[in-house]
Amino acid sequence: MQNQELKKPWEQLSELVRTDDPEQINAFLNSINPADTALAVSRLNATEQSRLLTLLEPEDAAEVIEDISDTQAADLIEDLPPEQAAAILEELDSDHVADLLGELDEDDANAIIEQMDPEEAEEARQFLTYAPDTAGGLMLSEYLDFRADQQVQDVLDDLQANREDYTYYDVQYLYVTDDYNRLQGVLRMRDLLFPSRATKLGSLMIRNPYKVGVDDSLEALRNFFEEHNLFGVPVVDAEEKLLGIVLPEAVEEAHQKQSTQQFLGLSGIIGGEEFRSMPLLSRAGRRLSWLSLNVVLNIAAASVIALYQDTLAAVIALAVFLPMVSDMSGCSGNQAVAVSMRELSLGLVRPAEIMRVLGKEVSLGIINGLALGILLGGVAYFWKGNPFLGLVVGGALAVNTIVAVCLGGLIPLLLKRIKLDPALVSSPLLTTVTDMCGFFFVLSFATLMLDRL
């Protein structure tokens, strides 16, 4: 027993999988926390992972799926026979099903949907039509609705009769709809406690309740829950028909996922999340797809230096300042990128407002460019005792800072207008442009003043 306790979770799970004993496996998984479950499952080899899900009952396998990331879960699901994958997905919440199916190839997703219960299959197809970061993509279809002419007793009877099914629902509110499923009102659970059992729901419900549209964005949902301290909000279509509910924790989780994807994009990880448990060639491909592009961009930047190699050879001190000019102006440009990205996400600026943003950034770029240019030019002068070297270096930094700040403010807006992800492309594109411009300004200014350097 002592040796067993010293083993790592994935070692214990691997041994249990080889025993083909689902009861022991399930008991072990129930004894560890979700983080350890995710760690243990990720360390199993592909055969053991598939065997694990095959041995467990669908509801137990679904609990494992809930404890790991969507990317990892999708990899496991797609390796299973469609009928087995469908049985597991039917045990998950509707929003989780949509997330997993959205991670799969279209053919794999359709094969699984074909094996699902017809009603759940139709629901899954409908969920896949909604963009992931909208109310439709985040909503749950598990909710309770009743008619206005029903009585409190009817609701209590229904809750009692279906208590096992409703255990898995997030029941904070009850919704009142008409015969066409249009939202009429909402009831809090406590509204059922004190009235007479014969009271009609129509007299108790809150009329004209808060609601969101099925196409409302993630940012709009975050703003809604910041303004309204609710446990959930109903989602309706253009005809006011009730489609589902969105929970605040789902919105926050989606926001964190979006932030993670943006961070990965800025770091050059293409194709979504990467885990070291993924196949080696798949991981290499994700990274090379971006690194290869960077090779091309850096060759373009280096070609500027090649054009002025005679100037650089004549004044070797310029080599010290080239990376400083490009790096300092690049930092200034990335600050502008960050501000534009934030304003875009908050809806404070629109992609068409190019001139407004340009006007704001030009004035700031001039101030910061002059300040940084004087600072670096002074360093160059005191180092070499040549005021013209200081003028070349300082002037190049000042001009390049203005360019970088203006481009940093505009690039996210331009990318947004052409339907590209600003978070993924803005920073690398800006870095390459500021490097090219920085090298050009330093070397061209030095060429003009070569006889004084």
Overview of the structural elements:
By secondary structure, the protein is mainly alpha-helical. 67% of the residues lie in helices and 6% in strands. It is built from 23 helices and seven strands. Helix 2 crosses helix 4, helix 9 (94-103) crosses helix 11 and helix 20 runs antiparallel to helix 23. The termini are far apart.
Notable characteristics:
453 residues; three-stranded mixed beta sheet; Tetracycline Repressor, domain 2; MgtE N-terminal fold; CBS-domain; 3 domains; mainly alpha; four-stranded mixed beta sheet
Topology:
Layout: H1 2-6, H2 9-19, H3 22-31, H4 34-43, H5 46-55, H6 58-67, H7 70-78, H8 82-89, H9 94-103, H10 106-114, H11 118-127, H12 135-138, E1 145-146, H13 152-161, H14 163-166, E2 173-177, E3 183-188, H15 201-204, E4 206-207, E5 212-213, H16 218-227, E6 233-236, E7 242-246, H17 248-266, H18 280-307, H19 309-314, H20 318-346, H21 354-384, H22 387-417, H23 422-448
Parallel strand pairs: 1-2, 5-6
Antiparallel strand pairs: 2-3, 3-4, 6-7
Helix pairs in contact: 2-4, 6-8, 7-9, 8-10, 9-11, 16-17, 17-23, 18-23, 20-21, 20-22, 20-23, 21-22, 22-23
